[in-house]
Design brief:
The complex is a heterodimer. By secondary structure, chain A is α+β, with helices and mostly antiparallel strands. Chain A contains four helices and three strands. In chain A, strands 1-3-2 form a three-stranded antiparallel sheet. The longest helix of chain A has 17 residues. By secondary structure, chain B is mostly helical. The two termini of chain B are 32 Å apart. Classes of the chains: A alpha+beta, B mainly alpha. At the A-B interface, α1 and α4 of A face α1, α3 and α4 of B.
């Protein structure tokens, strides 16, 4: 996805993708981030305890923690509500 | 909640896709008609036809229509590019859609609108201007092949072949004005959603205990 996203939307994408352990490269490719911003976002989520990092040889694997569950739920509710509460567009 | 939200999301996506598709077709027609009217005016001049004020006005408006047609087509293509991909993912009604897939689709749509907001606002302007220009062109064309005799009070039709062309021009004008109206509706709904996402961010920030800017 190349369109403009907010940091919160990117956090959500990273956290959902990392429900299964992923490598740094896989995350930045999937979430369409460059290396620098990818490091920023992943570092931030790790610091918050929403992502955990495990080392396997030379590779680091990132996976979403239980702590992120609340954020993911709230985000999903808020974004789905956009289509429930605001009158939509129809031809 | 997901089923209802999915239905609404899907229906909105389809409506917007149809509107953009309609705009692509009519944008191309508008451009083609702009060229056709310009060429007709120029050919008329080389054929020894006199330069009437009506011909000058018609020629000028067709040049504007041509320009607006190009702008219309480019803007539609830009928006179409993003929406097509999102719609394909949700087009299969029998395929179950997970909560996550739906939220991801909503994020993509929000991001798409955020990125194309200016283009959509330009479309509203281009469609309105295009609509009025084509309306003027249609009226001028109709005037060219109708003549009215004051003494007898009769209308005379000079050339039957011009009727489809004038009707099509008026058709493009109507579609253009309708498009502008629907784009305005779409934009209104999505501007409200963007405001809502800004409010949501505050809640998400609180839930994260976030001090990051």
């Amino acid at each position: 996805m190349t369109a403009r996203r907010t940091p919160y939307e990117i956090y959500w994408e990273i956290l959902v993708y990392c429900k299964t352990p992923r490598t740094f490269t896989a995350i930045i490719n999937r979430c369409d981030l460059n290396s620098k911003t990818g490091q920023d976002y992943i570092g931030f989520l790790c610091a918050k305890g929403y992502l955990s990092r495990t080392m396997e040889g030379e590779k680091s694997w990132y996976s979403t923690t239980e702590k992120a569950g609340e954020y993911l739920l709230l985000f999903t509710e808020l974004y789905q509500k956009l289509f429930d509460t605001i009158p939509g567009f129809r031809l | 909640m997901t089923d209802e939200t999915l239905l609404r999301f899907r229906s909105e996506l389809n409506s917007f896709f149809l509107l953009i598709l309609l705009n692509l077709v009519f944008g191309a027609l508008a451009m083609a008609f702009g060229v056709q009217f310009m060429v007709t005016s120029v050919l008329g001049l080389t054929g020894g036809q006199s330069l009437s004020p009506l011909t000058i006005i018609g020629g000028s408006i067709s040049m504007v229509c041509f320009g607006l047609g190009i702008a219309w087509l480019i803007s539609s293509a830009e928006i179409f590019e993003g929406i097509g991909g999102i719609r394909t993912e949700f087009s299969d009604r029998n395929k179950p859609v997970s909560d996550e897939a739906l939220t991801s689709g909503i994020i993509r749509m929000v991001a798409h609108y955020r990125e194309n907001r200016k283009t959509i606002h330009t479309m509203i302007l281009v469609c309105t201007l295009g609509g009025f220009c084509f309306l003027a062109l249609g009226i001028i064309n109709s005037l060219e092949f109708f003549s009215f005799s004051l003494s007898s009070g009769r209308f005379t039709l000079n050339n039957y072949l011009l009727i489809p062309s004038a009707l099509l021009t008026l058709g493009i004008a109507l579609v253009s004005l309708f498009s502008s109206y629907y784009f305005m509706n779409f934009s209104r709904a999505w501007d409200r959603r963007l405001e809502e996402t800004a409010r949501s961010e505050e809640m998400l920030k609180k839930s994260m205990g976030n001090d990051r800017e």
